[in-house]
Structure formats: C-alpha cells, structure tokens
C-alpha cells in the first residue's frame, strides 16, 4: 500500500507539493497569526526570486537597469 502511495505522489508532484505548502501555511496562520505568516511568505518569496536571479547569473543591478532603462520607453 505504501508503494502505491509513493507512485501516486510521483505521478502528481504538483498537487502533492501544493497540498504540503498549503498545509504548512495553514498551520502557521493558526499558530502565529496571519500577518506573521504573510511576512514569512513574502520574505521566502523574495529569497527565492533573488536566488533564482543569482543562479541565472543576472545581478540585481542589471535587473534594475533593465527595468528603468529609458530606451525601452515608448
């Protein structure tokens, strides 16, 4: 039975991941409150975003220059 459960989880990785994340967020909201949980989620999201840019060798300064470059405006 455990082997079948593992196969089912492998076939539905996105659903399993979403369910686990949702469960963790629900526990955090119930134990430490909504705004503290929101702060943790925002900080984690920012860390993932910056880490992803670092992995792609894009520096924060280059990203800022790209966003505010005056030649890209209409």
Task: Give the secondary structure arrangement, pairings included.
Blueprint lengths: L1 H10 L1 H20 L1 H22 L4 H8 L7
Helix pairs in contact: 2-3
In short:
The protein is mainly alpha-helical and 74 residues long. It folds into 2 domains: 1-32; 33-74.
> How many discrete structural domains?
2
Instruction: Give me the number of helical elements.
Output: 4
Proportion of residues in β-strands = under 5%
Helicity, as a percent range = over 70%
The radius of gyration over CA amounts to 19 Å
Order of helices and strands: HHHH
The overall pLDDT, averaged over residues, is: 83
Biggest β-sheet description: none
Distance between the termini: 61 Å
CA-based shape: flat
Q: Uncertain spans, ≥5 residues at pLDDT below 50?
A: none
Structural class: mainly alpha
Q: What is the total tally of β strands?
A: 0
Please tell me about this protein's structure.
By secondary structure, the protein is mainly alpha-helical. It has two domains: 1-32; 33-74. The protein starts with a helix and ends in a 7-residue tail after the last helix. Helices cover 81% and strands 0% of the residues. The chain is flat.
């Amino acid at each position: 039975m455990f082997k079948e459960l593992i196969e089912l989880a492998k076939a539905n990785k996105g659903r399993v991941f979403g369910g686990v994340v949702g469960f963790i967020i629900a526990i955090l909201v119930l134990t430490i409150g909504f705004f503290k949980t929101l702060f943790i989620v925002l900080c984690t999201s920012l860390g993932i975003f910056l880490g992803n840019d670092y992995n792609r060798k894009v520096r924060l300064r280059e990203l800022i220059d790209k966003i505010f470059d005056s030649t890209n405006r209409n």
